[in-house]
Amino acid sequence: MTLVEARQLYADLPDSIDKHAKYVFYSHGYIVEGTNPKPVDTRFGWGVYDFPAIKDALSDPSYHLIAHHRSKNTDPFEYAYTLSGQVRTLVGQGVKPSNITIMGFSRGAFITGVASDKLSDLGVNTIILAGCGRLVWKKHTDVKVYGHVLSIYEKTDKSNSCSALAEKSTSVKSFTELEINTGLSHGAFYRPRPEWVTPLKAWIKSQR
């Protein structure tokens, strides 16, 4: 068995579903859309978005991690529909909603928020990483999140607190928010820094 297999890391839903297991979905940022898993941001100087390293750091023997590499110019609303469908497939095969976590960074966080809204009847666990900007813009004020919600954001990033999202999402079971301060703005989530990876994985494991 390879290290990846031991850590239960997948690009899509596994062929065999264990109804007693935990499942975690990670949706990457916009810059990774396409064919390059390690693109470099030159516009803001945030450096390499190391998607393979992030997947490796987020994977864990205690849950199945599903991290799909989206195609270039993927429509976020269509992908949120796909993601919500995958979650419903798991629930349809006996997985408890409390054992499912959807999370994403930046564009992936927006997708995660929209999917959470589409899954309001299930209330799966939701993690937003530096992505509340678009979720609280005027044209997206109808989007709400559900279940137990974790927000992690970087102090020096314009994608700041999710407090406004939490305020309008009146049916959340719980809302936890963590501010990190690396001085790296949005780029803080381009690599698997312990400042956000460690508390994120602890939160996932705490959900029952």
TrEMBL record:
Protein name as catalogued: Alpha/beta hydrolase
Superkingdom: Bacteria
